[in-house]
Each structure stands twice: as structure tokens, then as C-alpha cells.
Write the C-alpha cells for this entry.
Amino acid sequence: MTKFRITLGAIGLIIMLYAAASAALDNGINPVGHLAFLAIVLIGHDLVLLPVAIGVGWLVTRFAPAWARGPALAALFASAIVTFVALPFVIGAGRRPDDPSALPLNYARGLLVVLAAIWVCAAALALYRRHVRT
């Protein structure tokens, strides 16, 4: 297992070095802008998103009944991923007034439908687990 992990780490390092070299050698790159973006993402993840996720997970683990913990945590995780992917569409990032066919759908409604489906499935699973345990 250790050789496998070392191999995966080496492959990942090679890919990161390739990406960094390609970005550094590209003529159309703004290095200050890229570094600022990476710093904002790192700070946002480590100082905002991660503590909130840990806190919510702790609250669910602490206060939810045992039969509901797994489905609730899975639904929270799936909701976070779906929201993260859909958020640029919901806020209309990239939408141009001169091209009405770009991003033509109601993405907020779609996100709400997907989130509702996730939570209905989680609730059904939790109720099933409660029924099986009693």
C-alpha cells in the first residue's frame, strides 16, 4: 500500500508541476490575479467553509437521533456539492445580455428541485431506518 501511495503522490506532483510550468510560461496569464484567486479560495475554504462544515456535522452528530444521522449527513454533503456546482448558473455568471440563449433556464428552480429530491430521499431513508430499528 505504501508503494501505491508514493506512486500516486509522485503522479500528482508531476501533474501539478506541469500545470504550474504551463501557467508560468503562458503569455496571456496574469500571475498576480491567479495568485490572488488562489489565496482567496484557500482562505475561503480553510477559514469559512471548513469550520462551517465541521460545525454543522458536529451539530447533526450531537443532536440528531442515531437513525437519522447517516442520512442527514449524506444529504448535507450532497446538498453542498450540488449547490457548489450550480451556484455559478444560479447567479448567472457568464450570462450576456446580447446572447439570450446562453444560460436560458431557471437554474434556481432546478437547484431547489434537486435539493428537495435529495432531502426527500434522505428523509425516506431515515424513516425506513427508524422503522427497522423499532
